[in-house]
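Ticket #4471: structure export looks truncated?
Reporter: QA, pipeline team
Priority: medium

Steps to reproduce: submit the single chain below to the structure queue and open the exported record.
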Amino acid sequence: MEGVGNNFMTMNDVDDISDISDMNDMNDSMSSESTENDNQQNHQNVTATAPDNRAAANDAPARTPDLAWLNAAKETITQWAYIMLRDADDHDIDWDWVRSLDLVHGIGVAEPADLEPGAASSAHDLLKADLAIRDRLEAIIAKMSMVFMRDFDRHIKTYELPRALAYADRRLTDQIDLLRDRGVAEGLWTVTDEDRERVTVPVLHATEAGPLTDDDLADVQDRTAEIVNARAEKRKADREKREASRHERQMALFEADEKHYGSIEAGPDESAPADSSSDAGSPDYLIEGQPVINDDNPAVPDVEQLHANETAVPEMRYEKSRHAAAEHVAARAAAAPKDYWRAVYLPGRDVDNVMGIDLETNGTEPYRAYIIDVGFEYMNMKSPRPTQLPGDYRYDKDYYESGDAYDQHRFSFGVTPEAARHGNAFIIQLTGIDISQRTGAEFPLFDEDPAAQADLLKRLTTQPFVAHMATFEHSFFMLNVAGYAEAYRNGHVTIIDTLPMSRLWDEGSIPCEGHPDGDNTLDAYAKRQGALREDDAERHLGLEDTHIMLLAMKHHLTQLKAEARGPWGPGGKAGVGGKRIVNYRRRSWRR
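Actual output as written to the record:
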């Protein structure tokens, strides 16, 4: 067998998960010693699960991935160019430039020899050129998801092009990292990671004895924070503009009512003529002497009053009260709590068979980082677990009980030799995974493993999948799993997120200075729901995190049902719930 891709489909005795299933945000660190022990235990678990497959992977020669799809993806550029004229930063897109990119062999300007310290080329100039390419490319990728999902007429047939561009961008990022490392080795600069509002970026500082100054380094600084923060501010300004426009339209409606209906203040007025329709005895003086003008809407006069062109109150008094009412309504609307956008990912009352999944990656951006660890398992929220499946799976944490989970899977993937050479100390500390050791046939690259992608896609579309802060997994699936974006757009993927369950339905999530909406990390949520010991910590491995998430979800749903809250409360949803694209077909009306 070749790599983990084939293991994806053979590590479990169940051939087809559809036979047993219905169609229905990193705080902890650990010492390097315990981390290494955990990592070794993780590998032992993998080996114990499928020793034959792992041995085959060790003996298998390194395979050459089929990258023909990268060039084939360029064939859809015409489709994208038809409806996508500008990128995420509102710049015109040169699609001929995109077409000229060598996605297979690399889009950076440096050759392999240029990445070595002491090379004759200029690390500064190469880094400057590569950063410019990446900024330009990522501005295009950042816009493509929205364009694809809003392409209701299906001009764009597939999402292959964004995946291909992201594939090339990951390799370009590897090259950028090694060029920075070369500059450090040559004494040109030092690198520190610094928080810049929404993101953390590597910042270059000139060395005291080096030939460059901080001013010389201005054109090789990472602009990711600047770009991301600018986009966020633009989105905020756009929202405020929409709110202002909504308020303006509301006021215009009040003005239109005034011109169309005249005075429409409800209730009798002593200054009005004795024969006014708003006086007692008129048809509009209703039950129990409650003076209104219209049964259905007190702010709208009845037909007789309109025909008589009567005025219930003097015009000046009407204008004053009418505009006061308009301002009052607008003020109440502005003060109303905004809808929590993640609420759409909440489960419904009838949710049952789900697949929980968690990814570990060597970064947070799906167009720069690699998937290195995948863990998923199944659990029924209502019906009994399949009895024919083993229930004695052993997790990385010995005290984890299988509970109602079944069909557990853990898969390890690799990174490019360049990414391995650069390494990632933070990921070692967080997960125990040393990406410098993740190369070779034993660790295929997920974005080069079509068999693994196909098998995962089949599972993701068979039943709802659950994740904690599911937008993270979703973003990686979009740019790594062939066919996922298309399936999601067509309504074949349902996503449930336990993060909004924690925020909206768990009273134990108490707001504090560090967590204004409460501590809704998976670690905190699992502890509150009894799925993780108070003296323990989230493991930051895919399968273990998936397990405590599903246990917490099931415990939480059981409690909510008993108390008639959550999905069983006033604002709950029937059915499975979760986020799913609903396609409304156009109807042809015939006379």
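Status: closed, not a bug. The export was complete when the record was re-opened. Leaving a note from the reviewer for reference: The CA atoms of residues 158 and 486 lie 6 Å apart.
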